[in-house]
Amino acid sequence: MKKIALILLLIVGFSTISTTLKAQKIFKVKYESQADIKVYIVKYESQCDLKVFNVKYESQANKDGLWYAVKYESQADKKIYFVDYESQADLKIYFVDYESQAGWKNNAKSHLLKF
């Protein structure tokens, strides 16, 4: 009985982890009304909520801030729209040069990329 409970706990734990990590497949929409999240790109790292690194392969998008741009809207976990002004944004991002730099600076906004 303990083994069954442990197995169920592991399955639930892994499914929870994969759900929070899946939200890194991103699709850029043309219109603000189509977006799940409105994003603004800041000039300085100190101004951002999330430091983002664009990965080349979907399998690399396994951590917050590692984004993989999908070709089709149906493949995306989140649809984003880039706004012109910081005040319009739900999330402020800064693009980093290295994968290891990606991640949250403002964890209060992390709910935006979860299901």
Topology:
Elements: H1 2-21, E1 25-28, E2 37-41, E3 50-54, E4 66-69, E5 78-82, E6 91-95, E7 103-104
Parallel strand pairs: 1-4, 1-5, 2-5, 2-6, 3-4, 3-6
Antiparallel strand pairs: 3-7
Polypeptide structure, described:
This protein is globular. It is of the alpha/beta class and 115 residues long. 17% of the residues lie in helices and 26% in strands. The termini are far apart. It has a six-stranded parallel beta barrel with strand order 1-4-3-6-2-5. Residues 14-22 have low confidence and may be disordered. The chain has one domain (2-107). The longest helix is centred in the N-terminal third of the chain and has 20 residues, at 2-21.
The coarse silhouette is globular
Task: Trace the largest sheet across and list its strands.
Answer: 1-4-3-6-2-5
Question: What does the radius of gyration come to?
Answer: 16 Å
Alpha carbon gap, first and last residue: 32 Å
Spans of 5+ residues with little confidence (pLDDT < 50)?
14-22
Structural class: alpha/beta
| Biggest beta sheet summary | 6 strands, parallel, barrel
Structure described in brief:
By secondary structure, the protein is α/β, with parallel strands linked by helices. The chain has one helix at residues 2-21, and strands spanning 25-28, 37-41, 50-54, 66-69, 78-82, 91-95, 103-104. Mean pLDDT is 85; it is low at 14-22.
Write out key terms for the chains shown.
six-stranded parallel barrel; alpha/beta; 115 residues; 26% strand
